[in-house]
User: What shape does this take?
Amino acid sequence: MRKHISGFSNPTVKYLRSLREKKLRKRAGQFLVEGLRLLEDARVSGYVPRTLVMAEGRDPHPLIEGLEREVAGAGGEVITTTPDILSKITGKSNAQSVVGVFDEFDTSLGAVDRSGAKIWLVAQDLRDPGNLGTMLRTGDAVGAGGLILIDDCADPFSAEAVRASMGALFTQKLARARWDDFVPWLRGGETRGGSGQLVAASLRDAVPYRGADYQAPCFIMVGNESQGLPEAYEAECDLRVTMPMKGRADSLNAAVAGAVLAYEVLDKLDA
Amino acid sequence: MRKHISGFSNPTVKYLRSLREKKLRKRAGQFLVEGLRLLEDARVSGYVPRTLVMAEGRDPHPLIEGLEREVAGAGGEVITTTPDILSKITGKSNAQSVVGVFDEFDTSLGAVDRSGAKIWLVAQDLRDPGNLGTMLRTGDAVGAGGLILIDDCADPFSAEAVRASMGALFTQKLARARWDDFVPWLRGGETRGGSGQLVAASLRDAVPYRGADYQAPCFIMVGNESQGLPEAYEAECDLRVTMPMKGRADSLNAAVAGAVLAYEVLDKLDA
Assistant: This one.
């Protein structure tokens, strides 16, 4: 189905705009992906938008035409509109010329198959959507299975998180859980002779991160940007590791800490 | 000197607000640092604000009182104002209760003493101020000497970069240069038997980053968030290294790539 929208007050425009707001996005169960590059990343990973919104007057592009066919073939809707209305939808003055609407994924812990990868990333109370998206991107790079969001993290379906993930939102499994549900799930698993090793970067009772005894499946956990991990959460970890801190600061950016640790774990588990 | 400002149209308020804009900040040669934590980081590193602006009615705090004395002692100005006016200055609805005004640093390449550290970070066309601040923070953590900004990078004195640096803006040497000035400077140095090794994360003609032959002073360079490094810049590097990319993506976030590489270099040069 294909239609053209020329009015700012069109209900579809209002609906699409509403997806920029976390609460309304959650209620709708859908999110926006902006730009051809991310939409192509999604398509290659097997995700086709429910709705595709394109600015009229854009230059023809074979990838957009291909997307259009896929959306139509899957029973989705293709909408053309003015650049101004597309800007209104995305809230950006120079909007990307194409936007896709996707259904949110199943982010239940039960849908995570931990035996599918040697590395999993875990973030607790991570508030910055850019950090969250960056962790997804790092997870893709190290061959992690996915990212598990504990407690009150940023929304992984926000435009900023989607953009920072650089398409990894579509390659990484994403789960959301409270700590009190995560720990029993972690300890209840029985794969490859173990339920999973929980590792945190920590200053308390920690061993050097280089050459530590990492075991697959290895769950690498980072904490909140300001507070770090709660002490009780660190105590639950099977391994606490520390990275050299040569300067005045006593911590790294959360996404950076996760990445430095993940590359170290990759080196050990891949050997 | 101490004064109270109660009017929104006060010229000092207008001046302080103007420091949020890159162009006006550059013209003034001053920048804002928001919040007691960052101001305390600055103070410990030997930097005292020219002007200290505090919201009236804040709770007394020994650190703020100490700062106030230092500012006054250095001939600076202490201003009290309303929380509303402070919010107007910072552009944030719930402003930190204290803001400091600092003179921008000398960021000329000539002021960099490369023999002072084994590691230096270099960013080329890095556009995201959060990434820039994060690289400063990482530099502090690995004991780098500082960050050299090549070509058109984000402004290191923007509020976002200052905040992301978590105080490392005051511990790391900061320099800005065009590529055509940086290369002769790099090659012209004569310290510890060498001018410095330029290393880039690259996909072209690269060796694995683990265990590569890093040499001090090692200059670790990352490129623009979208484009990476220009080919000619990579060709100038003494060493091109590559990190495993197990997923669909072919690159990491720029600040993450710099950090993973910097920790590897630290391990080799510190051994």
